Amino acid sequence: MKIESQLDSLGKQGLLRRRRVADTPCGPQMTIDSKPMLTFASNDYLGLAADPRLIEAAAEGARRWGVGAGASHLLGGHFQHEEELERRLAAFVGAERALLFSTGYMANIGVVTSLAGRGDSVFSDRLNHASLIDAVRLSLAESHRYPHADMAALGRMLGESYADNKLIVTDSVFSMDGDIADLPKILEWAEQFDARVIVDDAHAFGVLGPHGQGSAAHFGLPLSKRLIVMGTLGKAAGVAGAFVAGDDDTIEWLLQTARTAIFTTATPPLLASALLTSIGLLEGADDRRDHLRRLIARLRAGLEPLCARSDWKLPLSETPIQPVVIGGNHETLAVSDALTARGIWVPAIRPPTVPQGAARLRISLSAAHSEAQVDQLIAALADIAT
Ligand SMILES: *Cc1c(COP(=O)(O)O)cnc(C)c1O
């Protein structure tokens, strides 16, 4: 592989990515590349990332616990308040036990490779997050990918499988589309074919379900031996990290075998201090979730007529992730750039993050946005579309 010509080719296809540099904290108004911007780019759904109460908890945590964990959780880098955080998280999502990981990416790698291996079969939605796709590859299990949200196909694949150990893995809220997986049907298939289900709640934890308890609670499904959940703590929870929650035996097995938890230095213990405060805030944030739902409805009501008279598509989504599918890479970049010129930042998402020909603007809303800011985005897009 010639790196120079590969880079050149990425550029020609409109696929080069570029980091923008912020010099203010995460929020609706940021200074990005030295310009003030209204942003719709973060996954900080409840507006907690720069909350003064979390800043104070993190500072207090640093004073109490220091900065570095010093070692992995198993080798002395596991602290009192992290035990408490795991208990809080398990109770919050209604599981027997939870285990902390440093990131959601690592949690997915850890949980899938611990629960599936050579000779086993994993069934995954085609639009699953990259971390789940990588996890399945690393597990060496046989991989079966069903078309996005195609429950009949999933049932067929399960029915044709002779594997003793079957695992279904799915995003609950799909990260680039915002739609919600049909968990009740997935669980029904899992029961019928004796499979287990791992659900990735990265975009559901703190957002969906009563008090933000996540996708299982949203559907009224209890967590069990069959249904375990991975939740991330860097999105709605506003901090960093992740956890896997499930029954006692499964979590003990992860503690013994999940390599991404075992062979890595634990995250700074001050993060758990911030997270204990964050979980309390998140649980009590029904008003923020109500505001967020109103913003979602307002944005869709504004964009629907606009998409109806252009080639843009607004797929169904009841979550804060609202994609406007434009199609071509260059076209999508041009719209994103036109927004940037108007002081609004909405990222252009291109392959391989989304399928070829399905490049899109990924608008993500936060409870920290105001109705006026959403209106500003709608007006700018209307202006660009005409
Ligand atoms: C963000 C994300 C992850 C990874 O979580 P991090 O904590 O950011 O590593 C996993 N799954 C999905 C669906 C995500 O959107």
Write the topology of this structure.
Elements: H1 3-12, E1 29-32, E2 35-39, H2 52-65, H3 80-93, E3 97-101, H4 104-115, E4 121-125, H5 130-139, E5 142-146, H6 151-160, E6 166-171, H7 183-192, E7 195-200, H8 215-218, E8 227-232, E9 242-246, H9 248-257, H10 259-262, H11 270-283, H12 286-308, E10 321-327, H13 329-341, E11 344-345, E12 348-349, E13 359-364, H14 371-385
Bound molecules: pyridoxal-5'-phosphate.
Pyridoxal-5'-phosphate is lined by residues 103-105, 108, 129, 131, 171, 175, 200, 202-203, 232, 234, 242.
Strand order of the largest sheet: 3-9-8-7-6-4-5
Per CATH, the class of the largest domain reads Alpha Beta
Q: Please identify the structural class as seen in this structure.
A: alpha/beta
Choose one word for the global shape.
globular
The kinds of small molecule bound in this structure are:
pyridoxal-5'-phosphate
Mean pLDDT: 97
Low-confidence stretches: none
Q: Fraction of residues in helices?
A: 40-55%
Question: How would you describe this protein?
Answer:
The protein has 386 residues and is of the alpha/beta class. The protein folds into two domains: 19-46 and 285-385, Aspartate Aminotransferase, domain 1 (Alpha-Beta Complex), CATH 3.90.1150.10; 52-283, 3-Layer(aba) Sandwich (Aspartate Aminotransferase, domain 2). The chain is built from 14 helices and 13 strands. The chain has helices spanning 3-12, 52-65, 80-93, 104-115, 130-139, 151-160, 183-192, 215-218, 248-257, 259-262, 270-283, 286-308, 329-341, 371-385; strands spanning 29-32, 35-39, 97-101, 121-125, 142-146, 166-171, 195-200, 227-232, 242-246, 321-327, 344-345, 348-349, 359-364. The strands form three sheets. Strands 3-9-8-7-6-4-5 form a seven-stranded mixed sheet, with helices on both faces. Strands 1-2-11 form a three-stranded mixed sheet. The N and C termini lie far apart (43 Å). Bound molecules: pyridoxal-5'-phosphate. Pyridoxal-5'-phosphate (PLP) is lined by residues 103-105, 108, 129, 131, 171, 175, 200, 202-203, 232, 234, 242.
